[in-house]
Amino acid sequence: MSSVNSDNFLAVALVINRSRDGPAFVFHYPAQVQHNATDTGAGADLEDILLERLVQPANHNPSVANEQLPRQWDRDEHIVTDSGSQIVPWEHVAGFPARDLAGMLTPARPYHKTLFQLSLDPLYCVSYPIHVPENGKWKKQKKSGKGNDGDKASTVMDDHGVSNEADLSSGKLSDNSKDKDSKKDGDEDEKRSSMTMFNLVFILRPKTHEVKELVDSLYVNVVKKANKAYKYSQQQSDFIWKESKRILAAKDKAREEQRKMSSLWKEILQISSLAASMQEIYTAVSQNKIAALHLDTPLGILTPSFQIPVPFYVADIPEDSGRDQSGLWLTTANAFLSQDTLEEPGFLDRNFALLLMDDEKKIIAELQSDADPSTASMVEFVRLSKPTMSFHQVAQSNILTLSQVRRFAQHFIYWRRAIAIPPLHARDVYIVSPNCDPRRLPQDSVEWQRLFPVAPPLPNFLGELSQSPRPYKHFCPSKAHRPSYLHMLAWLMRRGWVTQLCTYAYVVVWPEIIYEVDYEMEAEDLAAASTSSLEQAKPPTIVEEHEHPLSPTSTIDTAQQQQQQQQPSSPPANPSSTEHVAERARLERIATKAHHRATERAITHARKTPPQPTPHPSLNDAPHLKGLTPHIILDAKKATGKEARYLSAIGKRFTDDRGKQAWQLFCKYFDGRCALERVALQEDMKRKEVWNLLTHMTEYVLCTRHW
Amino acid sequence: MIQGIFYARFFPQEGPQIVAQSPPGCITTSSDTTLPPRPPLIDFDILREYIIPRQAFCNRYLTINSPDNKYAILGHPVVIPHAKYMRNEFIFNFGLILDVDVDQVPYERVVRRLATTFSEMEKQNEYLSQTEGRADESNGRRPIEGLLEIVKEDLNNYGECMIPVDEANTLNMKLFPHHPNPPVVKGWHVPVSKTKFADIMDPTWDLTLQKVISHIDGVSDVRRIAHAASVSLDLAKTALRHLLYYDTILLLDMFFFGACYASRPGIHDFVSNVDGMVEECAGYVSHAGRRPSNFHLIRLMTSFVPGKTVLEWLWAHHEAGFEVLRYIDVRRFVQFGLIKGCLYRVHKHVVSKQYLAGLATGQSRPVEGADPIQQYTDGCHHFDQIITEQDLTDEEIMNKLKTLPVPKGDLALFYR
């Protein structure tokens, strides 16, 4: 993901359109839109650019005011040209006359609430234009029957019986009622807003390769949400229009007074919470922070917030693509989750814990400084949550409910005060993350020393951890040190220095097992075949069967069988027709042949070495297993057919009941995606017990270890 | 795919109009009544102010998406001021309509080229303004509509076009894909070729490039290649970066039996034999005649773990009764794992706490004129870098580190 920064995000601008006076450029932030005009056509041929430059001077048009601008102009003061016209600094934005830009950035109604993406080399304008409903009134109509306050609009609504209020888009609403609405009331015109649309435009200058990514992430996360928030405030209290009028009036006045742009901008930001909110959007988003707006509308303060979510982990070591992701937590704990596991109730609660990204005391102080009814329980949550405790365990404390825990956790994660990690445990193995950022080492060493003065210095501790992977508790000098060592681990985790080394497993089916299952299946097959051939040969009377009771496994004497074959032909059939005789002879031949084949198979089967279970199938190199290679079951959870039989055959090899049960229970984790370290959490079992049981299975699993 | 191509012009009386378009009717209803009417791709009434915009926005590349966000309109409106024109100016635009999800970068120069060529031709002999009202070919010129159709068809089918417009002017255009800038090549990288250079290289190639290419063997690091090719290190790096840009080589790191490799999530593709990866590996690593089974290869690949060198890994398999070296080329095996993203190299770093403390307080060089090794002791440089930049072996570095004038226990090694 390309990150948004002040290099590729230049400004935000608010543009409105008015029914009588036409488009107006209300405000933009920052005041000076940094834009390097010589930077044109990054994607084009040098040759083409040269050609274009050659063409340009001839196109020189004296009417373009821009060209008249003096070179040495700080774009803050007003300039009066020789001809007496006044050049106002804010009437040129990003190198374009603001008036013309306002025209370009007020697109027609078809762009209502949809992506509007205009590139004016080298700038990119992205927005989500909002038009007034076609009845010309911003105020949302009241739902019919919800108390008529004499508003004409709502009477009209009642007449037409339109009541899909629930939909936030008033555009849809008015579509239904517009025709009659406009015919009915001539005086309605009085109430029609003179602002027909507004558009909060994001001015970008992306690099050639990042256009799509940048526009997409900004549009979905910020552009749309900001314009929707403004729309809400406009519907509620005509906020955008009223503020726009104030800003435009201030600009007009300043124009007369020839005020400096910087002082005017300072004033506007003070008097208008709309302008201030644009400043907040620009400042926060261009620094990749959370924009928290504060719209001081007549009906109260609105505080919408939005952000481009920052990734807090990567699943694999990032390729060296120039994008800096080093220092991010390296894990597959999130990436490996399939839809199935996500839907499994309680999965996330059991497998994740909250890791605060900041000091606990600092976060509590922050919470208390802005108190609301849920503050007390949120503070409690911060106190209770430990990176070693899953959400499930936190909820078991009975102080908070599970739904509270989830809600608060989401809240903290959204506000970037915490991340969710698999619970830390002293028995788990942690290694130095290949994605850690060594450039942080000098600062982090100092910080580490301050926080953990008695611990080994950070470089030494990292060295120890990375020397050879061992359970974390081995680095801890005594049990008494355990809690402080877990604090250290949490800190290392938070700063991206370490990651958990997990174990992933697949089931291996050794030749001995394969042979055993194949042998059994062949035997069953033969048995089934002989029963079915018996049934085929069986005459309509049941008596016959009683005369020749054959056990399915016994090898059948050929003569006896032939005798049997001939028998059914005698009683009921009609012997007169020769055709019939021929047909019967043919059938007999086929039957005999099939029978021969079956017998042959039975004989070969009988000659085969019967399977001999050994205590260690992996070491069995008996001659009859030559040519068989071990088989890997990729997902034991979904194994069917033969693979399911392999699994049960392996299950039978465990001598104790506990082992047998455990095999059945744990098989589902042998899919190469579930970390075996988390089985205990998931099964609510003792870690040691799970580990002992898994150790007994090592012969039948193939393990690989990574984060 | 170009969905539509058009020529629009500003008329003093009628305002902006589409003069020519291909396919017919893609923007405005075609005058040709023999064709079945099709709905236009875009609504010209809404987009006209972006196709023929105000003057301030002319003479630049301008794109806009259609309201339904299905198409992107790419144009380059041109204004030519001259007293001979009514209203003293001539405004036109040659534009393309693309599907919105198509990469627009290759088409930008097409649009720019159309704009420059036609504005030049208009200035030379009023090519555009003279054809007005005379759709016939009386003066031997192609009608613009036909021209546009050929441009569209050729670019769509061949990715390039070369169309003579009149005696003096030809439209030469090609769609070039956009490649991002390749990463910087370092001295310790080992280039591995992805193409058979012998088949494509000819004597007209850059001499340095030819010299460098002849030494790419999948084993030598960049420093060695530069030395062997008698090319300066920087030139060798530039040459290799060039090859990287065209995706003809990839970069690995140096192979040592004492180095450590470990698995990463891509290992699961190897276990599942995605796209026959294991067979491919067997072909790449087996010694003639002896092919280890898929299971063995998988077991070998999955058994790399942090903290275990290749040598230790070999020993572990030896003890388990599998003589790895008799079956496979270990270096190629590790390389295969690295290329396919199954393995990563665990690098060795050295840190001097004294040096770190100096960095933290802002003194980047705590000891002036110190051993050159010192600059590597901030944890940001791995041993491969020291090996290539200082021409030392791992062992020599370790010995040198011991003689560094630092307090006892100041140095720490870590692996990542």
UniProtKB/TrEMBL annotation, chain A:
Where do the segments described as Disordered lie? 137-191, 547-616
Q: How does it sit in the membrane?
A: Peripheral membrane protein
| Positions with biased composition (Low complexity) | 559-568
Q: Where is it mostly found?
A: membrane
Q: Specify the GATOR1 complex protein NPRL3 C-terminal HTH domain's residue ranges.
A: 641-701
InterPro entries referenced in this protein's UniProt entry, alphabetically:
HTH_NPRL3, Npr3
Q: Name one GO biological process term.
A: positive regulation of autophagy
| Record's subcellular location | Vacuole membrane
Gene Ontology terms: cellular component: GATOR1 complex; vacuolar membrane
- Bias (Basic and acidic residues): 146-162, 175-191, 580-603
Question: Which controlled-vocabulary keywords does the entry list?
Answer: Meiosis, Signal
Record's keyword annotation contains Cytoplasm: no
Please indicate which superkingdom the organism of origin belongs to.
Eukaryota
Q: Does the keyword rRNA processing apply?
A: no
Entry's family note: Belongs to the NPR3 family.
What is the stated purpose of this protein? Mediates inactivation of the TORC1 complex in response to amino acid starvation. Required for meiotic nuclear division.
Protein name stated in the entry: Nitrogen permease regulator 3
Origin species, per record, is Emericellopsis atlantica
Q: What is the lineage of its organism?
A: Eukaryota, Fungi, Dikarya, Ascomycota, Pezizomycotina
Automatic annotation (TrEMBL), chain B:
Q: Which superkingdom heads the taxonomic lineage of this protein's source?
A: Eukaryota
| GO molecular function, a single term | GTPase activator activity
Q: Which GO biological process annotations does it have?
A: negative regulation of TORC1 signaling; positive regulation of autophagy
Q: Name one Pfam family in it.
A: NPR2
Q: Which GO terms describe its cellular component?
A: GATOR1 complex; vacuolar membrane
Family the UniProt entry places it in? Belongs to the NPR2 family.
PANTHER family in UniProt: GATOR COMPLEX PROTEIN NPRL2, NITROGEN PERMEASE REGULATOR 2/TUMOR SUPPRESSOR CANDIDATE 4
> What is this protein's record name?
Nitrogen permease regulator 2-domain-containing protein
